[in-house]
Amino acid sequence: MPDRPDYVVEIDGLAEIDGVSEPAADPEKVARPWIGVRFECCDVYVRVYRDPSGTVYEGRCPRCMQVVRARVGPEGTSSRFFTAG
Ligand SMILES: [Zn+2]
Predict the structure, then answer these.
(1) How many Å lie between the centroid of ligand 1 and the Cα of residue 67?
(2) Which residues fall inside 5 Å of ion ligand 1, going by CB?
(3) Which among 38, 1, 36 is positioned nearest to 17, based on CA atoms?
(4) With CB atoms 3.0 to 4.6 Å apart as the test, which of 2, 3, 14, 82 could cross-link to 33 if both were Cys?
């Protein structure tokens, strides 16, 4: 698995972010879950939103374009804040 994600994020417990707990009847209107990632390479903090597929978070450092990925899975942490770089 050369494309292994950096982190694994627990899928449960993310549904009620920002008080949104209703069924995703209209995905366009439901707030997308996100995690906070601090890129130590450039000392910047960004929100990384969940992919529409719901299986991965993927974001980039806004300065050097380093990619950070977090896979969603039941074995992961429920933490929403990570450090990359
Ligand atoms: Zn960077």
Answers:
(1) 9
(2) 39, 41-42, 61, 63-64, 66
(3) 36
(4) 14
54: containing domain: 7-16+32-84
Ligand 1 centroid – CA 35 distance (Å): 17
Give residue-wise pLDDT tens across range 30-68. 678 889 999 999 999 999 999 888 889 999 999 999 999
Q: How many domains are there within the chain?
A: 1
Ligand 1 center–CA 80 separation, angstroms: 20
Q: Token pair of 76, please?
A: 């992961």
pLDDT tens-place string over residues 3-38: 677 777 765 544 444 544 555 556 556 678 889 999
CA of 60 to the centre of ligand 1 (A): 8
Whether the CB-CB separation of 55 and 33 falls below 8 Å is answered with no
Pairwise CA distance, residues 29 & 80, whole Å: 22
